[in-house]
Amino acid sequence: MLKGIPQILSPELLKVLSEMGHSDRIVLADGNFPAESMGKSAVVIRCDGHGIPELLDAILQLFPLDTYVEQPVSLMSVMPGDDVKTPIWDVYKGIVAEHDPRGELAVGNIERFKFYEESKKAYAIIATGEHALYANVMLQKGVIA
Fold this sequence. Notes:
GO molecular function: D-ribose pyranase activity; fucose binding; L-fucose mutarotase activity
Order of helices and strands: HEHEHEHEHEE
Number of domains: 1
Number of helices: 5
Pfam family, one: RbsD_FucU
Radius of gyration: 14 Å
Oligomer: single chain
Protein name: Fucose isomerase
CATH superfamily: RbsD-like domain
Strand order of the largest sheet: 2-5-1-6-3-4
CATH class: Alpha Beta
Distance between the termini: 26 Å
Strand content: 15-25%
Largest sheet: 6 strands, mixed
Structural class: alpha/beta
Catalytic activity: beta-D-ribopyranose = beta-D-ribofuranose; alpha-L-fucose = beta-L-fucose
Keywords: Isomerase
């Protein structure tokens, strides 16, 4: 155990966050996301007992968001015709605003299948137990000045 490190962050996840460089991306995947098949070229970390909001907050305490792109936080857009509400997105935007001066302006959306394609290029995918639909979020790492 270390001082100042959120307990929800496992040693494996801390190692991955530390290994990542500028512009690398990490996906926090909900329970329905095909983490293992999307992560064939990525490190896949299992965090099945945790929700994304708690992990997102803990990660952003240590992880700078990229300032060289407008929206370093990407959400998976709801497919047309899906009657799904996404209140979790507001939770994410609030968490991002606590850690990045751009607030919710740092958050954008990516069409579902493009999100999958971008996930295949991610450095890591965290498979969570998040139950909310369309709860996937991708973070792009920045630099520590």
